[in-house]
Structures are given as C-alpha cells and as structure tokens.
Amino acid sequence: MKPAPFAYERPRDLDAALSMLAASGGSAKIIAGGQSLGPMLNLRLVQPELIIDISGLAELKRAEVSGDELVLGALVTHADIEDGRTADVTRGAMRAVAANIAYRAVRNRGTIGGSLSHADPAADWISALAALGARVTLRSLAGARSMAVEAFVVGALEPALHAGEIVEAVHVPARSATAHWGYAKSCRKTGEFAHAIGAVLVDPAAASARIVIGAIDTPPIVVTNAELFGGRIAADYKQRFDVRAADALLASAGIDDAAQRHIHVSVLRRAVLEAAA
Ligand SMILES: Cc1cc2nc3c(=O)[nH]c(=O)nc-3n(C[C@H](O)[C@H](O)[C@H](O)COP(=O)(O)OP(=O)(O)OC[C@H]3O[C@@H](n4cnc5c(N)ncnc54)[C@H](O)[C@@H]3O)c2cc1C
Q: What Pfam family is a match for this entry (predicted)?
C-alpha cells in the first residue's frame, strides 16, 4: 500500500517548524527518521494533510554535556550514540542500549526524539531512559516545558505532546560512580521489538534504585523504592531481589496472564543479575 496524498514542507529552522505545526491545526505530522512514521503512512494508519520534515534542523542535532547532565537534541540518532559520536555520561549504558535497537539500517536514521514521540511501549529508549532518570524538553511557540520520560508516555502510542509541541531534547543525568546498570530484553528474533524489558539502575552506596519494567501495554512501571528488594537496598541486592513482589506488581498493573508475568519477572531478574555482576 502507498500513503494517502500529503503536502510536504522542510522548514529551515525550529521556529519555522513550530509555526507550521501551529498553523496546521492538528492536520500535520512531524517526520524525523521516518522509521516508524514511514510504515504507518504506508499502511494508512495515519493520513496527515501535511508532513513537516525536521530532519535538517541543526538545532535538534546538538549533543552537549551541561553541568552534570547530557543534553541530546531530538534528532540524535541511535547510531550516533552507538558509535560514540555523543558524549557518554552513563558509563556505556546508553551505548549498549543503542547498539541493540533493531538493525543498523534503522539505527542510522531512527532518532531518540522520534522513538520517544512514537511512544511504543516496547521501544528501548522509553525503558532505558526512564531507568536513567532522564527528562524530555517539549517546545511549542508558547515556550518550553519539561517532564520525566516515564510521564511523557501516557499510553501505547500516546505521548504527552500537546498540539503544536515537539520533543526538543532529552536530558540524561550523569550516572554516579557507584551506580550499577543492568538492561535485559526478550525478543523473538534479534532486531525485533521486545516483548519484555528490564532496566535497572541500583546504587547500593546511596541505598537507591530506579527499576523499570517495560514493553507492557501501558506506560513503563518505574519503582524507586526498595519494595523489590525486601525493603532495603544494599550491597546484597542481587540476593534480596524478590520475584514474588515483582510478580505482584505486574498483577496489580493489570497483567492477568501468569505466563506473561513470568517472562517479565525473568527478564527483570536478568537485568538485576547483570547490574550486580
Ligand atoms: C524494522 C524495525 C525494527 C525496529 N526495532 C526497534 C527496536 O527493537 N527497539 C526500538 O526501540 N525501536 C525499534 N524500531 C523503531 C525505531 O527505533 C525508530 O527509530 C523510532 O521508533 C522512531 O524514530 P524516528 O526518528 O524514525 O521517528 P519517525 O518515524 O520519523 O516518527 C515517529 C513518530 O514520532 C513523531 N516525531 C518524530 N520526531 C518528533 C519530535 N522531535 N517531536 C515530536 N514528534 C516527533 C512523528 O510525528 C511520528 O508520530 C524499529 C523500527 C523498525 C522499522
């Protein structure tokens, strides 16, 4: 199938893009890498009157360390991160996640902002960035606002974007020297979307953790207390990981199928073991 007809604009800068988006009154779609929007256009799942191609906007390609965080423009590609063309404040965590997204051809064009905006619960950046404590900046003609990545995903394919807003940047806090990282996913085939993701940032020295269960039909589950570790986060967190508490959490999130819960808990356990290794 081919897309329904649409008009196409390639704005010269971010202000021009925002003006076009505002003027469209909701009938336009942004295209960045086109890796998710392309198939959706071809299948006619979306039929915008106008496509606004932001892929040439230099303002959205910047990547810089500012204070104790990395600020990545929305157009930074998965391959930019995989290849180390962006600074790394996560001690390799983001690079490893990027390298395992889809296939190289997808990673060359797919962008971090596009991945978040598409809001597929199975997307790697949603879970990984939520665990890393990242925030997104959204911009419209009215100004900018910022929110945690996990709050940006309202539901499956449902980002918290208002009309006229785009994702401008992702802010990733530096991973502390004592924080451990683990990331695991279960896919039917290498390069396919995951049907379970576990992302784990545990800092035993600070007795803190950010644990994410992703690739569920809702926004990711983010746990920032010690409930999955018997009430205490310490050096022995690997032994303290409580599979029954994780299972109960998934059940209370509405995952009724015990086999599905088992897969999610097993993948999360793998992430915890990786962090502790
Ligand atoms: C075969 C295949 C396998 C894949 N496997 C994986 C995988 O294993 N893991 C994974 O995480 N991803 C996977 N993906 C998705 C891929 O990572 C895409 O890069 C990503 O989903 C979309 O990024 P994009 O830049 O191509 O966005 P586009 O396709 O251009 O846009 C996607 C959506 O986001 C909107 N959008 C884009 N940029 C912005 C912005 N800055 N502000 C507001 N809205 C915006 C668009 O309007 C559209 O609705 C796969 C894709 C393919 C084709």
A: FAD_binding_5
| In the predicted structure, residue 161 carries a pLDDT above the cut 80 | yes
Q: Which two tokens stand for residue 169?
A: 């940047």
- Strand, helix or coil for residue 134: coil
* CA pair distance 239, 156, nearest whole angstrom: 33
CA-CA distance, 233 to 177, in Å (whole number)? 17
- C-alpha 152/C-alpha 126 separation (Å) is 9
- Residue 191 pLDDT: 76
pTM of the model: 0.97
167 shares a domain with 133: yes
Residue whose C-alpha is closest to residue 249's, from 212, 201, 275: 212
State how far the Cα of 56 lies from the Cα of 54, in Å rounded to an integer.
Answer: 6
Q: Is 111 in the pocket of ligand 1 (CB under 6 A)?
A: yes
Q: What is the CA(31)–ligand 1 centre distance, in A?
A: 9
Q: Give the count of beta carbons closer than 10 Å to the beta carbon of residue 162.
A: 10
Instruction: Indicate the residue among 155, 173, 191 that finishes a domain.
Output: 173
Pocket test for ligand 1, best of 54, 109, 115 (most atoms within 8 A of CB): 115
Is residue 24 lining ligand 1, measured as CB closer than 6 Å?
Answer: no
- Asked whether the predicted pLDDT for residue 198 surpasses 90, the reply is yes
Q: How many domains does the chain have?
A: 3
- Single out the residue of 56, 76, 72 nearest to residue 64, CA to CA: 72
Q: Strands across the sheet with 63-66, in order?
A: 63-66, 69-73, 166-173, 135-140, 143-148
Phi, psi of 264 (to 5 degrees): -60, -45
The amino acid occupying position 147 is: M
Shared-domain flag, residues 64 and 155? yes
Angle at 102 between CA 223 and CA 251, to 5 degrees: 30
